[in-house]
Each structure stands twice: as C-alpha cells, then as structure tokens.
TrEMBL record:
Keyword Ribonucleoprotein: no
Keywords carried by this UniProt record: Electron transport, Flavoprotein, FMN, Transport
Entry protein name: Flavodoxin
The UniProt record lists the keyword Flavoprotein: yes
Role summary: Low-potential electron donor to a number of redox enzymes.
Domain annotation Flavodoxin-like: ranges: 4-165
Source superkingdom: Bacteria
Pfam family, one: Flavodoxin_1
Family: Belongs to the flavodoxin family.
C-alpha cells in the first residue's frame, strides 16, 4: 500500500480536525500518517511518495506560523517524483481578497522544488474576490471554509479523497 504523509499546521484547530477527517476518509492511520508541522523537520518528508499539505491562511494572506517557520527549510527537500495534494482552511467572507492564499503560496514553492500537483478543485460554490490559490480558474487544492460553509466540509472531503485515491493509485 502506498504510504501517504499528511503535513498540517493549525492555529485554532480547524485544519487539524480537517486533517483527521481526511485521514479517516482514506481508511485511517494505516494509510495516512499525520504530522503537525509544529513538530516536523525536512527529514520527515523523505519517505513519502505521496504527500498531502494542509495550511490555513492567517494575517491577511500569510502562512500559518508553523508553516512560516518551515518555509525556508523546504528547500532542503527533494520533491521530484512526489505527488503532492494541498488543502486549506480560510474565510471567504472576512478575507475575500486573500481567500486561501496560503495554499497557493505553498503549492508554488513545492512545485518549484519538483513536485507534481494532484487534487485540483473547482471554484464553483465559493464567493470571493481574489486568491493566490487559484490557477487557471481552479483551486490548486481543496478549499474549505469552516467560518462560513462548515456544513459543506464533509461532502467536499469525501469527493476530494475519492479523486485523490485515483491520482495516488490506491
Ligand atoms: C486575524 C485573522 C486573519 C485571517 N486571514 C485570513 C486570510 O487572509 N485568508 C483566509 O482565507 N482566511 C483568513 N483567516 C481565516 C482562517 O484561515 C480560518 O478561520 C481557518 O479556519 C483557521 O484555521 P486553523 O483553526 O486551522 O488555524 C483569518 C482569520 C483571522 C482570525
């Protein structure tokens, strides 16, 4: 079975809860290993051919602080040959000009470091003005909004994980 590493950062717990729901949808900790980036180092990324990266956007368009701390060290990781999927937590009403920017910032960097992106997600069903996470009219990963659309999160995760299982070949 392919090993998947899910790396998340969180400030107020939403992204951690989402990470746990994604893990459960994949079938549990035998399939997906969770890493809180507050305790992670570049070496932790090495053994995974498939990665899932989760980051909420904070402080108007910025990375969550633990991701901020790891950002420069990501340069030490060889992402070539790795398939990487992204998800983010954000607030499309309160921060409509920066909705999910963090997901876009991490995807840009990790792609430059050689990763292949999987798990794009449509922008239908969201209402925002601008986002660094939109590439060619779609989100670079799964956009979740616990502040305004928590009732949609469960179904969005289910659909996205179905898509990812195909992409990861499991
Ligand atoms: C001060 C502050 C700034 C925020 N800035 C943004 C932002 O720029 N873009 C966005 O999409 N969400 C923004 N958010 C919303 C958070 O990303 C959202 O509440 C998220 O669910 C938090 O996830 P966490 O609990 O994993 O930290 C902001 C929230 C606060 C309180």
């Amino acid at each position: 079975m392919t090993k998947i590493g899910l790396f998340f950062g969180t400030q107020t717990g939403n992204t951690e809860a989402i990470a746990e729901a994604i893990q459960a949808e994949f079938g549990g900790d035998g399939v997906v290993t969770l890493h809180d980036v507050a305790d992670a180092s570049p070496d932790d990324f090495i053994g995974y051919p498939c990665l899932i990266i989760g980051c909420p956007t904070w402080n108007i368009g910025e990375l969550q602080s633990d991701w901020e701390g790891l950002y420069d060290e990501l340069d030490e990781i060889d992402f070539s040959g790795k398939q990487v999927a992204y998800f983010g937590a954000g607030d499309q009403v309160g921060y409509a000009d920066n909705f999910q920017d963090a997901m876009g910032i991490l995807a840009e960097k990790i792609t430059e470091l050689g990763a292949t992106t999987v798990g794009y997600w449509p922008t239908d069903g969201y209402d925002f003005s601008d986002s660094k996470a939109v590439h060619n009219g779609r989100f670079v990963g799964l956009a979740l909004d616990e502040d305004n659309q928590p009732e949609l999160t469960g179904d969005r995760i289910k659909a996205w994980v179905t898509q990812l299982k195909l992409a990861f070949g499991i």
